[in-house]
Amino acid sequence: MSTADDRSTARRSLIVIGLVLATALGLALLWATRRVLIWILVAAFFAVALAPLVDLLQRRLVRRRALATLLVFLAAFVLLGGVAALILVPLVEELARFVEQAPELLRETRAGRGPFGELLERVGLLGYARRHSDQIQHYGGQLSQPAIGLVRSVVETVAGLVTVIVLAYLMVLEAPLITHGVLGLVGDGAAQRLRRIGRESSRAITGYLSGNLLISVIASGLTYLVLVLFGVPFAAVIALLVGVADLIPLVGATLGAIVAAGAAFLHSPTAGVVVLVFFVVYQQVENHLLQPVIMSRAVRLNPLTVLVSALLAAELAGLVGALLAIPAAAIGQILLREFAPTGVRSLPDPTEPQAGR
User: Fold this and answer.
1) What is the pTM of this model?
2) What is the mean pLDDT of the chain?
3) Is 260 domain-assigned?
């Protein structure tokens, strides 16, 4: 082998090694900054959803974009604050009442009376609790140890939420300048295509939010009917809490079921069993029927694509993946339609009714 061949082989080897190291470094950087990247991604999601409202307000009523953005975000905060007040105020009142009655409830439970005592007696746990009271007190004392970690998690969550809100606000506020700067770097044809992609992506995200809200309303309404039929107290508050929790894809209904079933069991074992069975059935219907069908209409995706995207994203990226899976799949379809070859772009829309079906 000649010297030139040796140099060429060594050069290729160095290039391959360099690419591998650069890829590893890039992946390590992504992993190290994953929390910030998730914040930016979630902020962009909400910014795209709120930007049309800001644009509409700016065209109709307010000329200054900064004021229009501020008004839209304030309206969103007022709406969320009102929902939180409807949920938290009754819960805080009940918690205060429970704290006042806790000593008496504890005495009744130890004696096998009251709702808790009767429940423990019925399931055979009261005798166990009496025999192992020292161990239970020891474990209860250890619960204070992870309290610091819990407080740290709460602080980090609040900091992340504030960061996402600020990022979303700035993204909406600076959207015209960013759009103008990006479109100025490309030609007229590419600019029109980018405008079309942005418009359709914004429509897909808005449709996703409206579809998700419709599913939550259905979950809240059905929960309210079941709780009222069995006389569970604070049915409206619990149903509203279930609706808010159901905004979280895939796992939201489970979180709401824990609250609703717990309140129903405290009311009566029969109500608790019925509510639990209702949520088991409803979650399957929501995950495999309501969400695919409603979301397929809202974001113009095939129901199978909706279901597979949500399941895969939830498995790979957890809660954030489940939240962003469907709009990401819709945006991917938009990009495929724009940049794919002509034969692929001319395929019929899977959500449109076809002849012969």
Assistant:
1) 0.63
2) 75
3) yes
